[in-house]
Amino acid sequence: MNDPNIRVLVALETAIRGGSIALFIDGNNVETLSGDSSVSRAEELVLSIDGLLRRHSLTPHEISLLAVSNGPGSYTGERIGISTAMGIGAALSAPLVGIELLSAMRHAVDHSDSLISAVPIGRDDVAWARVHPGDPDNSGWAPQIGTFADLIADFNEDVSRTVVVHDDLYRQMSNKYQEGTAHTIVNAGTGLAEYVGIDALFREDHPAPRPLYLLNRSRSDGLF
User: What is the spatial distance between Cα 85 and Cα 45, in angstroms, rounded to a whole number?
Assistant: First the structure.
């Protein structure tokens, strides 16, 4: 249930493509910035947050809760998002919560069935997980990383399932992948911070950020 004490929530997702920032006031998403490279640059992220607040006649000291994606995503992007959120939280004495992105993407659909969510990582890799609505931290199933073809092969093993994907992946899914399958493909867009914020609003606990780094060992050339 949405906590009435959370009036102003700022959510960050800085590790997928251009990243995104979402602002919630009284439980409503009033604006989401996405696809702007400044969101994923450390030196400009704080300025972007400040500008977002100012457009809605708010100051940083009015933030009730900060939410940040734990990942998966780019290593640098995750570090930027989490370190920035921790710095802002410490400066403002504002509570901070870390959110599992792939689990939070379940909020892109309006049903409570299990699903697969997926995001692009880097140039050629994809991360995905089977998400269960009753397990907000997705502790029952570890995320996977592989190629786009690996993702397609994995979800085609299921008879029928909803697949929620970032806009970049949705665009890659040509008709040959969508026709003749019982799967429902949902475009989650590029503003994934919205789902991070929604998940934070409905949590009863505020776990600290914990970065989720995934390595595609097939690309590590035996270094790991």
Answer: 10
